[in-house]
Write a structure and sequence with these properties.
Order of helices and strands: HHEEEHH
Strand order of the largest sheet: 1-3-2
Bound molecules: zinc ion
Shape: elongated
Radius of gyration: 21 Å
Strand content: 5-15%
CATH class: Alpha Beta
Distance between the termini: 54 Å
Oligomer: single chain
Length: 150
């Protein structure tokens, strides 16, 4: 009986690893882009919020789904796509929405940042920019569009 030894040369291993990484990059990149872009149709087709009263109602309703309480909603008139989540000076968790974000979907997105405690200034934060773009923002988009809580 003949034994065949399968020995991969360093070059072959390198090729496998790089092609694996290329696939990961392509699929990872597409998934990332897909998640980040998914929020646009979600915003576009979501119910628009036109008054402060409507916003208060939606904030209350969507907060309840996340188990959040006492979130202040501000309807801001600041451009086409304005969405913010922060802790106000008085310590009140606040969201600001305007333009395309003045919708149920936009409110969901910003509330998710409070749900995951993304706005807590006391939280340890390494590489805040990278964390925002690659962790916090995609997760908020996932919840906003698909209501998936991770
Ligand atoms: Zn966000």
């Amino acid at each position: 009986m003949e034994h065949k030894l399968i020995i991969m040369s360093i070059n072959e291993i390198y090729d496998c690893v790089t092609s694996g990484m290329n696939w990961l990059t392509i699929y990872g990149g597409c998934t990332y882009a897909g998640i980040m872009l998914s929020n646009f149709p979600s915003l576009k087709f979501s119910k628009k919020i036109r008054t402060q009263q409507e916003l208060d109602f939606v904030v209350e309703e969507e907060s309840h789904k996340l188990g959040l309480k006492n979130i202040r909603g501000i309807l801001a008139n600041k451009g086409k796509c304005h969405g913010l989540a922060y802790i106000g000076e008085d310590g009140t968790p606040t969201i600001e929405v305007g333009g395309l974000y003045a919708s149920k979907s936009g409110v969901r997105h910003e509330l998710y940042h409070h749900y995951k405690d993304h706005c807590n200034p006391m939280k340890e934060n390494w590489f805040p920019e990278a964390k925002y773009w690659f962790v916090e923002e995609p997760l908020a988009c996932l919840y906003q569009t698909f209501r998936i809580k991770i």
